[in-house]
Amino acid sequence: MPSPSFPDLVRQIRQRKLAPVYILHGEEGFFIDELYKEFENVIPEGERDFNLYTFYAPEVKAGAIIDACRRYPMMADRQLVLVKEAQAARADEINKLHDYVATANPSTVLVVMFRGERAKGRDLLAAARKYDAVIFESKKPTGRNVDSLITNIVRGKGLNIEPKGLAMLCDYLGTDVSKIYNEIDKLSMVLGAGAMVTPESIERNIGVSKDYNDFELIDAIAGRDMAKAFRILAYFRSNPKNCPAVRTCSNLFSYFASLLTAQFTRDKSPSSLKTALGLKWDIQLNRYTMGMRNYNAYQTIEIISALRVFDANVKGIGSRQDEYDLLHGLLYKILTARGDISF
Known about the structure:
- There is one protein chain.
- The chain is of the alpha/beta class.
- It is 55% helix and 10% strand.
- The chain has a five-stranded parallel beta sheet, sandwiched between helices.
- Helix 4 (62-70) links the parallel strand 2 (52-56) and strand 3.
């Protein structure tokens, strides 16, 4: 069966539409941790002493897990067997669970969790696919799909979001899934169901300035507006906790890497550019069309090189300067780039 999305899987667990076997694996630990909590809640607290088994895979043999799965629940319809830290167990030991998957006890829900890694055990995975176990891969979001993740979470909380508000959250939260969920939870509690997430509500409740943030900085740089860019830098310098230079560098690198893609995209029509850049709205495209008017590909390549040097310097490699002094120098190099590169 196809792998369910995280929201779909949470919904199925809460509705008690459960499969006999689940395999949870992948790089992003947050989703697996949240699913573990959801599965735990399947068994009422008063029944957990009898019908909930939690094993740590490195400390137990597969035979003990299978024995627990073969038992029947006590005075209940189902029991739950959770196998944690499977990524730390030997692959050949975990693989022994494949025989159980083929003849799983219908009154047991077995959940095997490989946190932070891909699942081990070729035979186990083959049996899971053959016998319709649920396999969920917890993937880390990328810069290209984090906006979709945030949009889905916002909608899942019964909220709507303006495009600029979405861009602000993407720039501020990055790909930190735990932080994304926590901040959107905060917004949902404050704003209430059906509300619109606006730049103003983000500024008020999360602490990101609607006028002085990476989103506005990139717009200023795209338009080669030096005065605005350095006003924003001054704000960053006075608010270092909320405006770390390393995050700004990451967002600038993402912008110029995408700008380079746009510059080398043959079809420059809005629909083609949005497809090439993975964008959904025209407002997202505006900064790239503006950037293409103000920078050529040679200048973009020079800027990307300067960003790499800045990234090393701000981490203490080759420089001991204050990070905002380094950022000041970087912005000047970007805004005055001439496209002087050598191959």
